[in-house]
């Protein structure tokens, strides 16, 4: 009888553990659940409330994604110069719900797998076709920002920072930040995390063939060029 009871308890514990894991997965996914015309529920209420707060929706948050909510989403997308489709997907929601983040303390001591995860992705998205030194240099810039009190205090925070609702790194805007990095990008991220600094204290870079970088050129000091990128401090 006791043996049977122990088996039942064991089975119940396994089921409970699996349920928790499944719940966690769905909870994470729901953070960016795609919302569109005819969607309903609490996620729509939250979306509508934020649109109301920003002045894009002149209506109540009723949890129904109707014509007015769709129009409000389009207005938000137009105002923020992102893809205009009336659908509140990952890009629209991440920008809509962007909140102020804490700043760095100027001291960074240890890094974890999450830091490597995001750093390797921004390196791959920004510098996949660049020489290896250029890849490490992009990681160098992110790490310099991380150590500065003028930027967020996590690698992910630096990468996903917005200024006046514009992402500081274009791969966040176009979605390439979510592409899987190749081995060179991963190795470059590891080198940057180790403290290798091919561009010294640079905190800015851009590709002059794709962007004017006017503010950077006028306000920062040129350091060097590596491949297609120019770096400034």
Structural features, described:
- The protein has 233 residues and is mainly α.
- The radius of gyration is 22 Å and the shape is globular.
- It has ten helices and five strands.
- It folds into two domains: 55 residues, PGBD-like superfamily/PGBD (Muramoyl-pentapeptide Carboxypeptidase, domain 1), CATH 1.10.101.10; 120 residues, Orthogonal Bundle (Arc Repressor Mutant, subunit A).
- The protein starts with a helix and ends with a strand.
- A hairpin with a 2-residue loop joins strand 4 and strand 5.
Keywords:
233 residues, mainly alpha, Muramoyl-pentapeptide Carboxypeptidase, domain 1, Arc Repressor Mutant, subunit A, 2 domains, two-stranded antiparallel sheet
Question: What would CATH call the architecture of the largest domain?
Answer: Orthogonal Bundle
N-to-C order of helices and strands: HHHHHHHEEHHEHEE
The helicity comes to: 40-55%
- The low-pLDDT segments are 13-30
Main sheet: strand order: 3-5-4
CATH level-3 fold name of the largest domain: Arc Repressor Mutant, subunit A
Q: What is the level 1 CATH name of the largest domain?
A: Mainly Alpha
Number of helices: 10
How many domains make up the coordinates?
2
- CATH H-level superfamily of the largest domain: Cell wall hydrolase SleB, domain 1
Number of strands: 5
Report, as a whole number of angstroms, the end-to-end distance. 73 Å
Shape summary = globular
Sheet/helix structural class: mainly alpha
Query: Hey, roughly how much beta strand do the residues contain?
Result: 5-15%
Computed over alpha carbons, the radius of gyration is: 22 Å
Mean pLDDT: 83
Largest sheet: 3 strands, antiparallel
Q: Oligomerization state of this entry?
A: single chain
């Amino acid at each position: 009888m006791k043996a049977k009871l122990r088996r039942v308890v064991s089975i119940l514990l396994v089921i409970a553990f699996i349920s928790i894991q499944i719940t966690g997965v769905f909870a994470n996914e729901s953070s960016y659940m795609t919302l569109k015309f005819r969607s309903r529920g609490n996620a729509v209420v939250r979306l509508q409330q934020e649109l109301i707060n920003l002045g894009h929706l002149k209506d109540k948050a009723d949890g129904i994604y109707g014509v007015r909510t769709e129009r409000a989403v389009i207005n938000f997308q137009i105002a923020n110069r992102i893809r205009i489709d009336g659908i509140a997907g990952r890009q629209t929601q991440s920008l809509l719900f962007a909140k102020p983040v804490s700043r760095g303390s100027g001291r960074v001591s240890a890094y974890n797998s999450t830091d490597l995860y995001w750093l390797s992705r921004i390196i791959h998205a920004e510098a996949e076709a660049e020489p290896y030194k250029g890849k490490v240099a992009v990681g160098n810039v992110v790490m310099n920002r991380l150590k500065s009190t003028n930027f967020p205090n996590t690698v992910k925070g630096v990468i996903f920072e917005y200024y006046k609702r514009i992402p500081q790194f274009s791969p966040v805007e176009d979605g390439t930040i979510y592409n899987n990095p190749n081995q060179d990008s991963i190795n470059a991220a590891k080198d940057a995390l180790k403290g290798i600094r091919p561009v010294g204290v640079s905190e800015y870079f851009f590709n002059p063939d794709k962007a004017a970088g006017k503010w950077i050129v006028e306000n920062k000091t040129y350091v060097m060029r590596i491949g297609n990128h120019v770096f400034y401090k």
